[in-house]
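Milestone M4 deliverable, item 7.
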Amino acid sequence: MKKRLLPVMVLFALCFSLSTAFAGEENNPQAAQSFGNRTSVSGAPWTGRYTIVKGDTLWDISRARLSDPFAWPRIWKKNPFIHNPNLIYPGQVIKLPPGVTIAPPKASAKEVPPPPVEKRERGPFVSKGTTLMTRPRVSEGRIITIPPPPTRIPVANEETVLEAGFVDEGGIGTRPIEGSPVHQSLYGLFDELYVKTDGVSTGDRFIIGRYEGKVKDPATGDTLGRLVKVSGILKIEGPKDGFMLGRITKAFTDIKISDRLFPYEEPIIVYEPVPSNPKAYGVSGYIAALSDNMEDVAPADIVYIDRGAKDGVLPGDTFVVLRPGGYTRKELPLERSTPLPGVKTGLIQVVSVREHTAAAKVSSSDGPLKAGYDIYYSRPK
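Output delivered:
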């Protein structure tokens, strides 16, 4: 009898130890790190930092955290110790740009069982979870595989357009933030703020921003307006305690009570390839200002130009940037130097347009771009 019970007891002990190990792994975040997908970029908790695991790329991290794989230069810029964006290693801890939106955790299969595939079929595509599969179509005895539709690539996503900021050319009505139910020095995503009730309705949205100085025309010295740095988006939820209560739905940087509320304008999203803009043929101007008061900018940074809707500029337009070419050498002491032609040094693409100005992101450059550099719209050949 003892000989018969011994194998059963050994099997029971083995099963118990395995179940205990897996339960401990589920409750221990450090142990979970060894199980690959359980600590993928889409499932990591928000701490402002992320630890690289095997198989990660900046492209994948940007797609999961910024909802835009083409915004990976923002992560690269945030981590200057990464000299080559193609070379990142497991164990490296990187900083993530502020204001990313955290997607809600997906329900497990036990909580929400997926409906049968045959009940979910729509057209030529069958969606299983997050995997898009093609359903073969039979025609004359042959199986024809229908490819998925091409992916539309935006010039800039909604967050990039909003975060780029703009030049207040005058006449924009702003209002102050009156306070918050919770007193603190800085505010962020999902925090609540009070706004006066006059002219405000439930569901209204406002741009939260602050002024960062005057923007002058490099050619004439005239003031074009004041640069607005956008720190977030506020959505009004309804009346409370004699005010209208709003919640911060997007935060691009720290938000302060001293920030102002600007009218919200729905971002215009343009997709590649962008058609030629005949209205902008021959338009030239200058880079009038750089984002964040920087001395120079590089790819993925934002610049502001002294040309806008009145000049025919549209979102998606690409301008060539010229750096000064210097001057000719003087042969005689009293001889006057002649300026040399500018040298093409980069491309910028417009993401939002105002009446006399526009915000553009740096698409490419051979070196740092500065305020005062010439720009022109190149007519297609």
